[in-house]
Design a protein that fits this description.
Largest sheet: 8 strands, mixed
Radius of gyration: 15 Å
Number of helices: 4
Length: 179
C-alpha cells in the first residue's frame, strides 16, 4: 500500500470512493451528499486551503481523507479540519484509515499546521491523537448537532490553548447538514 498526497487527475476516483463508501454505510442519499461535498472541496477550494491524502493498492484508491482550512478571526495559528474520511468497504477493519490519518497528520505537521480538528466519533479519532474539546475552546463555524464529536489535537510541541474568536470554514463545508 502506498500513501499519496494530492488529488490532481484523480478527482473522479476520489469522489467515487467517498460516494460508494457512504452509500454502503449510510444509504444512497448520504452517499450522494458526501460525494458532492468532496466534489465541491476538490473543485472549489483554493489549493493553499486543502490537503488530500489517499491510500492506493494495486493502482486503485482504497482510502481517502480531506483536510480544509478553518480560520479563527483573532488567532494566528494555522488550523485545518478533517472531513470527510473514507475507506472502501471491502478494505475496512484492516487499519488503513488509521494509517492514512497518521500519514496525513504527519504531513500537516511538516507543512507547519498548528492544529488539526475533526467532528466525528471520539472513540475512533482518539486512536490517532484527537481529543474532545468544547466550543469554548474552539468555536465551530456552524452550530454542532453532536458537540461530543468536536475533537482537536496540537501538531506542535505545545499543548493546545483555546482558539480565539469566531471561526469560518471553506465554502464547501459551510452547510449545517455537515455539522
Amino acid at each position: 500500500m502506498e500513501f499519496l498526497t494530492g488529488h490532481k487527475g484523480r478527482e473522479a476516483e476520489i469522489i467515487d470512493l467517498f460516494t460508494s463508501t457512504f452509500t454502503a454505510s449510510e444509504g444512497e442519499e448520504e452517499g450522494v451528499l458526501i460525494g458532492e461535498l468532496v466534489r465541491n472541496l476538490l473543485g472549489g477550494t483554493a489549493p493553499e486551503d486543502l490537503f488530500v491524502f489517499t491510500a492506493e493498492e494495486d493502482g486503485a484508491i482504497i482510502g481517502g481523507i480531506v483536510f480544509s482550512r478553518l480560520r479563527y478571526e483573532q488567532d494566528q495559528r494555522t488550523v485545518f479540519v478533517l472531513a470527510p474520511v473514507a475507506v472502501a468497504p471491502i478494505q475496512q477493519g484492516k487499519g488503513i484509515g488509521q494509517r492514512l490519518l497518521s500519514h496525513g497528520l504527519a504531513a500537516l505537521r511538516s507543512a507547519g499546521v498548528d492544529i488539526a480538528m475533526t467532528y466525528g466519533d471520539p472513540n475512533y479519532y482518539r486512536k490517532v491523537g484527537f481529543l474532545p474539546i468544547s466550543e469554548a475552546d474552539a468555536a465551530a463555524p456552524v452550530p454542532l448537532n453532536h458537540p461530543e464529536g468536536w475533537l482537536a489535537q496540537s501538531l506542535t510541541d505545545r499543548a493546545m490553548a483555546p482558539l480565539k474568536g469566531p471561526s469560518s470554514c471553506v465554502e464547501a463545508l459551510n452547510n449545517p447538514v455537515f455539522w
